[in-house]
Structures are given as C-alpha cells and as structure tokens.
Amino acid sequence: MASVDADALSPEHWIAKLAEPDRPILDRAGIQAQNARMRALDPSIHDLATLPDPLPRAWVRERIEALSVLPANPLYDGHGTPLPPRSLRMLRRALALEAIAPERPLHYGLVVRRADLRTFPTRASAFSSPRDTDIDRFQESALFPGDAVAVLHESRDGRWLFVASERYLAWIAAADVALGGRDAVLGYARRTPYRVATGAHVRTAIAPGEPRVSALPLEMGVRLPLRADWPPEQPVHGQLPVAAHVVELPVRDAEGRLQAMPALVPRAADMAGDYLPLTPAHLIGQAFKFLGERYGWGHAHGTRDCSGFVSEVYRSFGVLLPRNTGDQAASPALDRIAFAPRDGHAARMAAVRALRPGDLVYIPGHVLMAIGRQDGMTYVIHDIHGGRWRAADGTVAEGRLNGVVVTPLEPMLAGDGRPYVDHMVAIQRIRPAAAP
C-alpha cells in the first residue's frame, strides 16, 4: 500500500517500539501445555496414535466424502476452458469408494518431500474464473519432510493416498510418502537431538548422487533428527560435514518403504538447535522473514497462504495451530475474543487498540498478525491475495497485493466496502487463557 513507508517494512522498526521485546510469552513448559490443550480440545486436530485400527468402512468413506465434493458451480482449467461433466465424473470414480474394505489395517508413513494435499486424487487444476488462475480449487494444503500420516485409502489407480495428518485429511501422491511401522513413524518427531528450520527458505545441501535428499526444501518449523554421532571424517554424499549439520531424513526405497538417510544442512542455513523462544521480538522477526513472498493458496507455488503463513511462524516456536482460518478462528484451545454481528464498531475498535504483537485477527477467510501501532493506527503483517483499502483522500483503492505485506488494519476494506474491523469474527492470542 502506498501509505506504508519504508521504515514500517523493517522488523527492527517494530521491535524497537516494544517495551519488553524479549519477554517470554510462553516458556517451553507453557507451549507444551498449550499444545496439549490444542490436541485435547480442538476437533480439527487429529491424534494419529488414537485412530481406529482396523478402520471401519463407514468411518473412512465419511471422511473422503466430506472433502472430495463435486463442485456445484462451473470450473475452468488453466486455459480458461470449462471442465466437462465427464471430467468431474472421472474424479468421483477415481475415489474408488466401492473398494473400501469393511475393515482395513491402519498404515503409517512419513512424507519425504514438500507435497501437495489435494481435494481429489489428481494434479489437474480447477479455477473458479477463466481469467484468474491463482487459486486452484483442488489445492488444499501441503505437508513437509518428516510429517507423519496415517493412510486411510488408495485411489483407483493406486497413485494417490487418502491420508490423515495431524492437521488435515486429504489426498497426497503416493510417491511422496514412505510407509513404515507405527513406532518409527510416530516416533520420528520425538527424536533428540534435533534441528529446527527457522528460516523461510532453508534447503539441504546439494547431493549430486542422491536426489532424494539433495537441495530439499525445509519449511519454517520443520524439525529433523540430528545425527550428532556422525564421524566427522566420514563424508555424506561426497562432502565432509565439517561446515554442516548431519540430519536424518525419511526416504522411500524401491517398494515405497521407509528408510532413513543422512543429509547435510549448511551451518549458514537459518536453523536452530531448538525451537525459538516465544517472545514478541522473535514473533515479529519470524513473520518478516516472509515479507514480499508470493501468495500461494493452499501452499501452491511453493509458498503459502494466510493461515499457512501464521501457522508456520508459530511452528518455529513449537506452537501447534489448526490449518485453516475457520478452524483457527474458532479454536477453543486459544485465548479467544469472539465477535458477534451485534457487536458495534466502537467495541471492535477498542479490541483492535488492545492488540499485542503476535495476536491473530480473523475476518471470514483471512487472518492477519498484529505487529504494533503507529500514527494512531494498528499495523499488521499478512499474506493476502487481493485487497481493498481506504486511501488518504477517502477514495477506495484496490489491488492484487498477492503476497506477504505490511498494512495498517483500519483502512483495509472487505468486498462489501465495509472495514475489516467490522467483519472481525475473532482475535486469537497464543498464551494461557488465564494470563492477563
């Protein structure tokens, strides 16, 4: 936005305004307690260890049909051509619902690379408009290396798996999952010591002879076991680990089974030996690492969307959030301030003025993170597709922001021309509900 000056695009600018930038919001025990509440109270979070085994047919079918719903409105391919009814029928057939066994043993796997989660078992895209191909309506989310899944079903051609992850159920390409034993899969995220990706764009070192672990993207918050016992004189894929950390990554063997493989992460990479301390300064600093990144609906384009943005920022502190904005906004496990249609503008503005850095502001379909106040306005950082705002001369400006941006909250307008503030459904705060 034209009204945001260069200083406001610097994390140091906002950190300098904090009275106690390094004050812990939650310590490690507090974060563990918060995550335990999330897993116990939030219905959008799935405990893979407690899924029914074997899986009843009705249980599996219900979850597939809740996701893989044929659209009621017309959809278009990437060339602007309407998707024919036959294509949609083929998508339905690919679900192979009639092949779900009355009972099937539960299988587990680890994701081996950043992988899309899809509405249907297909890589084909679908768009609501023949002219706008930014938002693929078949794209749901993404999973990252080391994420655990439970396999619930397979597509008709066997190339896709319907999986449950901790935060989402959807279709994933079978080639992106290595199947393994329950203990190995569920224990991967608990292994110590470990390294945590704390940067926006971390990659493993190039390994020319082993493409499965070469230049592998590691999203913010990804946790990998550290091979602290690796002999320093022993090369890893042709490179001595004298200036790198040796981590262990899951890979697939020729039959799709889980194997462990060492990989190097350069010591210069933005990683840490533990999750970062949850402080206001670190929250702002982590969010600004994504500044200017392209918006990616459902983690498309190798980037992320608004809810993915805030959840990955918090993931770098070890804090668990639901995947989608609706679930985040409604979560009973957070310190939630809810708004009803009857709540007036004055009450909403009072809540806005009381926002603290790191607080999450929700309007239908969007989330923004508060970073501070300046010149009588509340500033936020958010990952947004299109935007409208009230310009200094009172006119309405509109633009495809299409990325992670810093804006004042108060001038932002929803599609009906009303302020975001008047559309707020909730403010969520990541701290114990009893905290002041």
Automatic annotation (TrEMBL):
Keywords: Hydrolase, Protease, Thiol protease. Gene3D superfamilies: endopeptidase domain like (from Nostoc punctiforme) (3.90.1720.10). The keyword Zinc does not apply. Residues 277-431 form the NlpC/P60 domain. It holds the Pfam family NLPC_P60. GO terms for molecular function: cysteine-type peptidase activity. Coiled coil: none annotated. It comes from the Bacteria. The keyword Protease applies. GO terms for biological process: proteolysis. Belongs to the peptidase C40 family. This is NlpC-P60 family protein.
